[in-house]
């Protein structure tokens, strides 16, 4: 979602972890008067490498077993897939806690953009090589541009989730040698440091079959501080092992094991010492269990993610009418959802949420006025005006013989998600809207229901691995192309709808190099998204992780990139 977790998304990646909130009602009864401005940007127990033990295994708890690790594929747009890929694949740039980019010198020694924004030059690290022994050269970057940018003649055969940025590169050429690559843009792309957040070998970009299939539960070729990836489908674990052929600063750890558990099981295995860390978020029961537990530290920082309600607005769908979606937002008390969820984890229920800008970034503001307020009377009138009539109290609205009845799909083992659906169901019933809550297996939730559009409404998280507002464009723009039958394809836009105005606005945003003007444009777009009722914000996701206190350089990273080589255990 770009990736919703599908931290962009910015990676707007999809993230399962549950919750609810947003604008609407007041803060009555909430004893926590803390605001988002009071919360730090990062909390990872930062420790110098010299003070860490050499070796060891970090056991990382996750809540899904991703099926696809080609992250540019529509099914690879998952936060957990991104996290695992980041340990074993090249990333051209990293970001600090303020969201400022810098070259990842293990792969890119320097990067320079021309004054007109039309020419970008990378000086590549000549020591960098793939696990098959082949050097990483300009040809790998060129192949990725050709494929992800949709420039190939057989573009429709590649299941691309997001083309933004890559599609603007008209030509790629070798510089002075194979370790210099020059990108020529057809038009400026101000967010260029977020490109190549995961680079793949050219042979896996040139062949659609290899692109679509070869990274399914596999990493046939890697190039990171970790490699030799092992998948255990029975145990639902993914293990990445330190790569002794790594040319950069060696990883402190011997290995990282990603353990897949249901969300309801993660707190218990953490309490038993079976894992060293997991994202706790806003699980009140988990917070109560672990807040005073021996051998557990809870982080507190702003997270680069937000939770939202998503409506399927695809053509022919029940919620294709924007006015109906607007009405549903007024019918749901998002503030009540926030308080019910967040009060149990000692986190502010400050409902100020922006889809594109985090509270630690310049320009952050609430743009929900007129669209985010809880007003069931207005909601009922809007539905009436849209032609959805109500025969009597307790009845369901109808239009042309069709009932206004939503399929609200949720993943199993997420109590907060179930609570959100039940709150929405009760409140929507008050205005004559029926809700069928369908609980599906967590591992099937995204690939079989949300990505294919088999739902009317749901809640999940959009998270990002970079600080750019424009990275979320993939979640709100489109279509990105057509399938073989000529039907529009939406890539990572899980609303299956957009407008020309949104497409143009995101295009303008991506060209804006002035920080103040960039933030202003991002806020204009956020306002447009309120008008369209797209990814209706519930709350900015808490950066609460449960961590073994002996673990260093891991936890709530906020806008900063995870430094996998520096994760370790204190002496």
Automatic annotation (TrEMBL):
GO terms for cellular component: ATP-binding cassette (ABC) transporter complex; periplasmic space. It comes from the Bacteria. It holds the Pfam family SBP_bac_5. One of its GO terms (biological process) is peptide transport. Residues 1-22 form the signal peptide. One of its GO terms (molecular function) is peptide transmembrane transporter activity. InterPro entries: Peptide/Ni-bd (IPR030678), SBP_5 (IPR039424), SBP_5_dom (IPR000914). Residues 110-480 form the Solute-binding protein family domain. SUPFAM superfamilies: Periplasmic binding protein-like II. Keywords: Signal. Gene3D superfamilies: Dipeptide-binding Protein, Domain 3, Periplasmic binding protein-like II. This is ABC transporter family substrate-binding protein.
